Amino acid sequence: MRTVFKTSYDADIRMFKHGAQAGWYALLLVLAVVLPWLFNTYWLGEATNMLIWAIAGMGLMILVGQTGQASLGHAAFLAIGCYANVLLQMHGLPFVLAFPLGGLIAGLAGFFIAFPMARLHGIYLAIGTLALAILIDDLIVIAEPLTAGVVGLFAPDISIFGLDINRYGNPWLFYWLVLFVTVLIVLAYRNILRSPLGRSFAAVRDSEVSARAMGVNVALTKATAFGVSAGITGLAGALMGHFAGIFNNETFNIIISIQLLLMIVIGGLGSIHGAFFGAAVVALLPQAIAIGRDVVTGWLGSSSVAIPGLESAIFGFILIAFILFEPLGIYGRWIKIRTYFELFPFYRKDMFRRQRSYLKTERMR
Amino acid sequence: MDVLQLVVSGLANGCVYGLIALGFVLIYKATEAVNFAQGDFMMLGAFLCLGFTNEAFLGLPFWLSVPLAILAMGVFGYALDALVIRKMFGQPQVAVVILTIALGFVLRFLAGVIWGHQPVSLESPIAGQDVRFGGLVLGMDEVTIIVVTVLLTGGLYFYFNSTRLGVAMQASSQNQLAAYYMGIPVKRLNSLIWALAGMVAAVAGILYASKGSIEPSMGLLGIKAFAAAVIGGFGSLPGALLGGLIVGLIEPFAGRYMPSGYSQIMPYLLLFLILIVRPHGILAQYHSKKV
Is B246 inside any structural domain? Predict the structure, then answer.
């Protein structure tokens, strides 16, 4: 058991809690960088996919985990980021400009959409964003001259200062690009949490009334959280477009939005780790199902049968199990296991027990 | 005359949306939980009735299978609350939202496994008949939908305002702890509410199925019903119906008088407008919260 003595206020907002923690993250980073030499092309592609989902997950996590605002429509920002990035490149902008601009456009869209809706609470906001995702889907079809509608667009090869990056041509370069963006986002995310902005996010999440009493501009904070979140999600969308190669309005449908929300819940709300754990589940689940199906058909000796909807059903089952038995997600479970060993043998069952609150409606006096 | 036809078919569609929205509002009003699987409840109700009625499955008479399906959905709703949702008591609202979304995935999958993913139609005696009012020819299905919806809404309104159980449900929806102190069995009431919502969903599903073919993914209709519920006012039963009717009426008229592609986004544009102008719906039931 390690005890960190905090001798100054700065200790509360330090980047790493202690030296060993920094060491472990450095090791993880080194491992991530040398991954192309360890994995073959197929699994490297899966790892890239996972990182892209993790970026999108971090985007949503800022909103849901840190600010406590549910969004069921984040695929809309994936779509905005993706289309903005590719369209700018098609009109002659280099990737190094088009990519951040794509994120910026998505972020601004998020900010200005959220501003009128920032007065809304919980469920109304969720439904508003749900409607947004459906609207964007239809708008892409309506704006056909620009977006090619249901036919879809091809993502061009990424060109950074003369270096061509293609997902199939040189997957390791694409992986490193995604990894670079991921690390940047993680650092940005962590630093937002250490700043006054991050603390006002947490204040709004925990109690809007008391946040207002402490001088936090609730509506502006919510809209900012929406903007930051949408911007990061937009970057993920741009990478997703390059990863998929071709995309249309269906690529970013309502199911993707919901899957994104479910992903960060499985991973564990309110932590960067949660976004990564959730992304691992979402990215690797189809593989696991395929392998499981091969095993089952091997036993039965029959030809393999595809059951439509099986993937989302298994996803649903996992999610129900998590909500009922481990609401803190995979990361919460990990913390519990770690604490168990750190405190051994003094761990108690109720150490992470949630405070339950009884319901008083918001509709009545 | 043409416009009148549009109005009637819009009203019929709107009634189905309204009934699904009614299910949302029932659960929200009583337990403050939001059931995103309500559209899938409706789908399940429709498929249960189809499974009882159609020759390919059980082949029971239609008028026997309707109450059977409604009853089955009631039992399903009760069991769901008693076994799953009740465990969520005291947890944040979003947790229940996510749980019910996941439940929707599972229900859609199960329905697909049992009844297949192809569109099928219910062998209903109401389908395909006409009713004449003077010179006006209306579909029997549409008239039935409107009549049943009006009766059901009236019944529910009476139930919540005048019966002992209904008033108890309102009390527990306002303050669970206080209601519990007054001797109201809050847990059982919540389960009964879920049962009621399941039964309403089954009625909506059967009505919808007698209008055309059904498939497991039709639960996504619930999203439109959600928009309807918010437009009308999320905590109000007449509001849910009103919202449903508005959404139902907008669709055929927008489809008629606007370029294609725009008609399907009209309900959501209206939703945005309502959220910005009147955030708690047309018939809002909201007062500011005291700390």
Answer: no
Q: How far is B136 from chain A (nearest CA, A)?
A: 36
Query: How many angstroms separate the CA of residue B135 from the nearest CA in chain A?
Result: 39
**CA distances, A187 to each of A85, A205, A272, B113, B279 (Å):** 23, 22, 10, 45, 36
Nearest chain A Cα distance for residue B39, angstroms: 15
Q: Which residue of B34, B176, B272 is in closest CB contact with A359?
A: B176
Q: Which stretch, A10-24, A234-248, A329-343, has highest mean pLDDT? A: A234-248
- Among A164-178, B122-136, B276-290, top mean pLDDT goes to A164-178
Across the A/B interface, how many CB contacts are shorter than 8 Å?
147
ipTM above 0.85, yes or no: no
* Residue appearing with tokens 């601009």: A101
Torsion of CA A52, A57, A59, A62, to 10 degrees: -150
Q: Dihedral of CA B34/B39/B42/B43: which sign?
A: negative
Name the residue facing B268 among A134, A364, A365 (closest C-beta): A134
Cβ neighbours of A142 in B, within 8 Å: 261-262, 265
How many folded domains does chain B comprise? 1
Q: How far is A56 from chain B (nearest CA, A)?
A: 18
Distance of CA A132 to the CA centre of its chain: 18
Q: Which domain holds residue B46?
A: 2-218
Q: Is residue B235 included in any domain, yes or no?
A: no
Chain A nearest-CA residue for B30: A361
Give pLDDT, residue B290.
45
Give the model's pLDDT for residue B135. 67
Geometric angle at alpha carbon A319, from B49 and B82, rounded to 5°:
55
Contact A117 B276 (CB under 8 A): yes
In chain A, residues with a C-beta closer than 8 Å to the C-beta of B32 are 359, 361
B287 falls within a domain: no
Q: CA–CA separation, A197 vs A209, rounded Å?
A: 17
How high is the pLDDT of residue B279?
A: 72
Whether residue B234 is contained in a domain is answered as: no
Contact between B91 and A356 using a beta-carbon 8 Å cutoff: yes
- Which residue is closest to A121 within chain B, CA to CA? B279
Comparing CA positions, the residue from B219, B245, B253, B240 lying closest to residue B284 is B240
Task: State the alpha helices, DSSP H only, in A268-309.
Answer: 272-300
Q: Do B286 and A261 make contact, defined as CB atoms within 8 angstroms? A: no
